[in-house]
Amino acid sequence: MIILGIETSCDETSAAVLSGGRVCSNVVSSQRCHAEFGGVVPELASREHERLIVSIAEAAITEANITKNELDLIAATAGPGLIGAVMVGLSFAQGMAYALDLPFMPVNHIEGHIFSPFIEEGASHRPPEGAFVSLTVSGGHTLLSVVQSDLSYEVIGRTLDDAAGEAFDKTGKMLGLAYPAGPEIDRLASGGDPAFHEFPRALTSHSQSSRSYRGNLDFSFSGLKTSVLTWLQKQTPEFIEKHLADIAASIQHAIVSVLVEKTVAAARTRRIGAVAIAGGVSANSALRRAMKEACDRSGIELHLPGLRYSTDNAAMIATLAGLKVRRGVPTERNYSVAPYASFAAGGRSS
Ligand code: KG4
Ligand code: ZN
Fold first, then answer.
1. Which of 217, 272, 331, 333 is the Cys-Cys partner for 103 at CB 3.0 to 4.6 Å?
2. Which atom of ligand 1 is nearest to the CA of 172?
3. What is the residue with the minimal CA distance to atom 23 of ligand 1?
4. Residue 42: pLDDT over 50
């Protein structure tokens, strides 16, 4: 089966072609027009998607060495995301499916991330036979879920305020770093001391009111943000500049240790032997390292997405569409965007 996947939920315009479950092309164009605003401007994002979607889809088809007439299925992100941005990709994909008389599969963006560690590129890399715990950490989401082999899942933890990526981006902004600051904090932290300053880790066994951690799998990062701000206000610009790498490493350590502790606790308490992490923050080198060490200590198998599949991409959308078809999920026509309705497609949240 040859699948064309389309992803336009935020500020990446992407199209990918999969053949027999394997990636033949994955074209991603990251919008640069938002940098001067310090965050994604929804209307600019929609216009950029509109400008690029046709050429990106054509590029994915050409790079895969096929013609559009060889496609068997078209899939696109149907939400959650910026409504105008999602609409561009979804309308384009449904229009193309209609014109070519092909089936269409809507895909939930977060579910796409969840399955990104199982994108096949060269080697076969199918999801585990049994259940796995998924940690999905992006600029908009921080979710812990238990995913079953029939692709259904149960959300067992989520952020009560900011997403993990936001925690990186907003504290990075306080340090004067450009948006999105996550990758820059990662780079700076590699030369810094994570024990330089202890920032708070909410709802964990390390939080000051350690009684707050009683198997609580929810996250909270707003306290960290305030703590970084008030601590920085007490330092001189010279001190901050001199210790930028140490401060970045300390912030990163606070975020990463919470993510690792809760993910491993979830797998252990539920007696699940596999963990998969996904989303933009899963590109973080300290998170990958710490999660691997913690999983190894507990005998848990860890699945990581390839670095280029951590951030938004269409290969994950096409991959999940393929898994759904194999599971007998019916294709659709005339699907509407769902900007917030996060887990309509096959999920179950608690
Ligand atoms: O999944 P994604 O591309 O878009 C959303 O759906 O949000 O995630 C973007 C987020 C941003 O907050 C960015 O700072 C973060 O992922 N990110 C990182 C790294 N690479 C991307 N955070 C920490 N370390 C990284 N290496
Ligand atoms: Zn995403």
1. 331
2. 14
3. 182
4. yes
So where are the chain's domains? 2-119+309-326, 132-304
Mean pLDDT, all residues of the chain: 91
Ligand found nearest the CA of 185: 1
E strands within 86-194? 104-108, 132-137, 142-147, 153-158
Q: Return d(Cα 291, Cα 94) in angstroms, integer.
A: 39
- Closest listed residue to residue 187, CA positions, set 252, 282, 260: 252
In this prediction, residue 334 has a pLDDT band, given cuts at 50, 70 and 90, of confident
Q: What angle do CA 277, 80, 99 make, to 5 degrees?
A: 110
What confidence category does residue 173 fall into, taking pLDDT thresholds of 50, 70 and 90? very high
Distance 181 CA to ligand 1 centre (A): 8
What is the 51 CA–ligand 2 centroid distance (Å)? Answer: 21
Going from the Cα of 103 to the center of ligand 1, the distance in angstroms, rounded, reads 32
Report the pLDDT value the prediction gives residue 343, as an integer from 0 to 100: 46
- Which residue, by CA, sits nearest to atom 3 of ligand 1? 311
Buried b (16+ CB within 10 A) or exposed e, 199-225: bbbbbbeebeeeeebeebbebbbebbb
Q: For residue 2, what pLDDT is reported?
A: 98
In this chain, the answer to whether the domains covering 2-119+309-326 and 132-304 adopt an identical fold is yes
How much is the pTM? Answer: 0.90
Residues 6+ apart with CB under 8 A from 187: none
Residue 182 Cβ contacting ligand 1 at under 6 Å: yes
CATH superfamily of 132-304: ATPase, nucleotide binding domain (3.30.420.40)
The domain defined by 2-119+309-326 carries CATH number 3.30.420.40: yes
Q: Which bound ligand lies closest to the C-alpha atom of 307?
A: 1
Nearest ligand 1 atom to alpha carbon 285: 26
Return the closest-CA partner of residue 191 out of 228, 150, 245.
245
Closest-lying ligand 1 atom to the alpha carbon of residue 187: 26
Instruction: Decide: 46 and 87 in contact? Cβ < 8 Å.
Output: yes
